[in-house]
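note to self: dont lose this again. the chain is below, predicted strucutre after it. 295 aa total, dont forget to put it in the shared folder this time
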Amino acid sequence: MKNKIILILLVALSFSVSVKAQETVKLYNGVAPGSENWKQKEAQTYSELFKTEVVYNVTSPTLLVYKVPQGVQNTGTAIVIAPGGGFQSLSINREGIDLAKRLSEKGITAFVLKYRLVETITNDPAKEMMDKLKDRATFEKQTAPVIELAAEDGKKALEYVYKNASKFGVKASQIGIIGFSAGSTVAMQTVLNNNTTYVPNFVASIYGGPAADLLQKPMPKKVTPMFVCAASDDQLKLAPRSIQLYNKWLDGGYPVELHMYEKGGHGFGMGKQNLPVDSWADRFEDWLKYQKLMN
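---
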């Protein structure tokens, strides 16, 4: 009876854990290299188009740190989370904080990355991006240099986690990165286009659309397991990119798992649509357990 009471108390305690970002880490000392002349100010708003909170005009890249709560066993695993938003904004909750909270409650230290973005001149970054996409060639030309800066922010984020691993109870062999949509490009840059010593040990791409030149990069020297997830009815027609990424890993002989849902659209993140795609995070956790990255 005594053991049963203790077990009930422990279960109750696990459900009462409140998780929030314990700190915000600035990735660069001073102004981030490459954006010295940027004058825009970071802001956050609710996007009616995306139906979620978004951050825009990021000029000073940061990490929102979600430590493993007290009373939860630390797995020693850390994940950098790169939200998406077309390099115009960041879906900070549905593709960042919501996942960070969930993973931290499972014993994984999570770091939500706010990387640099294309300047937004209105207070509606989602609508502004859709207007710009009417002239895709100009949009891609404007976005290209910012993608390079965002990729550097991703590498800098991994550097920070590696250098501070002991502070968070993280093992250097269990540091990875997951990216959603544009954030997937940031994540894959740290794997396929990274000359630093701070490379991820595992990677996940969620409805990503890495460009052809990135997909043509050589496989990483380190064997890097990858999890890939997307929906066939992606409105941006990016589902084939996920399959190409999967095939690249498969042909290279590296561990890879693909989940392609019939419906879910683009940007489903941690949202709920009463569709099978809603359970993708469960499948991601199954994969983490199989990789011995999660209890």
